[in-house]
Amino acid sequence: MHGRRFRGTFAAVSSPSESRAAIIQGDRSVLLEVEHPGYEAARAVLARFAELEKSPEHVHTYRVSDLALWNAAAAGASADEVVEGLRAISRFELPSIIEHEIRDRIGRFGVCALEDVAGDPSTLRLTIAERFVRDRLAGDKKVAALVRPDGSGFLLAAEHRGLIKQALLGIGYPVHDRAHLIAGSPLAIEARIDRFTPHPYQRKSVQAFVEAGSHGVVVLPCGAGKTVVAMLAMAELGVRTLVITTGQEAARQWRREILHKTTLGEDDVCLYAADRKDVGPVTITSYSMLARKGGTGPTKHTHFDRLASEGWGLVVYDEVHLLPAPVFRLTAELQARRRLGLTATLIREDGREGDVFALIGPKRYDVPWRELEKSGHIATAVCFELRVALAEKERLRYATATPREQPRIAGENPDKIDVLARIVERHAGDRVLVIGSYLDPLADAAQRIGAPVITGETPQRDREKFYAAFRAGGIRRLVLSRVGNFAIDLPEANVLVQISGTMGSRQEEAQRLGRILRPKPGGATFYTLVTRDTVEQEQALHRQLFLTEQGYRYFIEDTGDGAEETPGRAGGPTLH
């Protein structure tokens, strides 16, 4: 298994032009015919350097964006390889403007580089290979405020390292950061390979990260062992490590995993949280802790200033696609540390993928979800969208509601509970998770299917009791609020029913599907209940982009009164 690395040839997908699946247009959009025999091969090519924008039933739209090209360049792709890939799948001759823009954008990667200044660790040199770029940057007020001319380049204070990378990316020139990284305090740590065997893709992702300078992002599916990647990186580098997670529950799970799979002891792995602020060789905290304002330190963020003063040699960003805006600003202060971002998707609903690229680093390694599915490292999954009608009374309420109220009305559609009950009945012998965003329907769902419900208000002791019972088989159904999106270790779950979501979030779709992807016999089934003819159905089109990008087919079935009778597909239920 090689992961997402460029090989320099696309001969395997070449075919007579009239039989190819893609139409490539001058605006860098690519139309891909879903039912075409060459669809899968073309999709695999595009996944290397393009982003999926739309995924209706018959034709998907990709875009060869600047950021996708720069991530591909960071992974070793050349302009020739990208152009060759597009020609191999294109039904018509490649527009000349496309080749020109691809060569221009990939050529920009590395034009600007940050390097050390001998004898002055407080100053960095920004080298620029092309004069017209130097002139352009000198005339940009935002950038000029951070640098001072010096011969054929510029000098800047080391503390502005992150800011200059953000600013230059913003004007179209990603920076190759070659300046020194702090070694950090040493830490004796080894992976306990007597207790587990790392998968080859996990070892290769660490190798790619270290060889690229130990700053960047590894993209792996949920359930594929991103925590193991971090631990292997810690053992490879042998340095004190700060791990930043999505919350306290995730932090506790990280601690359990590190203690089980490494040679570190109880006193070596500490939690820095609201109720206890311990600091040790490996310290685990949350984004919310770092983002809390207060204190008189350099950043006026008490906990960040406290932790930033430690001798970390590595900072791990768990679920880096969820990095909140305040922590982006703080991350700019950590540019001299090795930085490992872990995520199932680089998609950010706020459009700040560029900040991840600039401040954490480029994508260093990824493995497509379906590739790990085929190799048995994650479960085979089938995905369904079940459309549920609103009752007449609810339709009137929806029609007269404000745009702000409509998503809740659609999400709380009472008829979804009947559909849920039929799904649970069909999967009587399975381990079923039900997840939603609105608390009242979750309570109704829990009562209807006879399952406990866990929300943000559920005490930690009760959560652990329910999780343990589910793992042991004492209970086979569990209802979860958005606390179930992250950091719950329930590998036995093989069915997930999503009864409502958050504004069509692709991030959330990735996380929720990931809850059932631990390898298991029989695979997994993922259902989403969507209220028909509402904003929820519109949001579903956006949410499905993630699944389509990963190669999943999303089968749609209407249910309830007024629906057309449609047969079940791919082994899925017909729930009329």
CATH homologous superfamily annotation of the largest domain: P-loop containing nucleotide triphosphate hydrolases
* Structural shape: globular
Mean pLDDT: 87
**Known CATH architecture of the largest domain:** 3-Layer(aba) Sandwich
Q: Roughly what percent helix?
A: 25-40%
Discrete helix count: 22
Q: Please state the structural category.
A: alpha/beta
Q: In total, how many domains does the architecture comprise?
A: 4
Radius of gyration (Å)? 25 Å
Major sheet: arrangement of strands = 12-13-11-14-15-10-16
Low-confidence stretches: 6-12, 562-571
Strand fraction equals 15-25%
CATH fold-level label of the largest domain: Rossmann fold
In whole angstroms, how far apart are the ends? 42 Å
CATH level-1 class of the largest domain: Alpha Beta
| Most strands sheet | 7 strands, parallel
Count of extended strands: 23
Describe the structure.
- The chain folds into four domains: 11-108, no CATH class; 112-173, no CATH class; 200-367, P-loop containing nucleotide triphosphate hydrolases (Rossmann fold, 3-Layer(aba) Sandwich); 373-559, Rossmann fold (3-Layer(aba) Sandwich), CATH 3.40.50.300.
- The chain is globular.
- The protein has 22 helices and 23 strands.
- The strands form four sheets. It has a seven-stranded parallel beta sheet with strand order 12-13-11-14-15-10-16, with helices on both faces. A seven-stranded parallel beta sheet has the order 19-20-18-21-22-17-23, with helices on both faces. The protein has a five-stranded mixed beta sheet with strand order 7-8-6-5-9.
- Residues 6-12 and 562-571 have low confidence and may be disordered.
- Helix 20 links the parallel strand 19 (453-454) and strand 20 (477-480).
- It is an alpha/beta fold and 576 residues long.
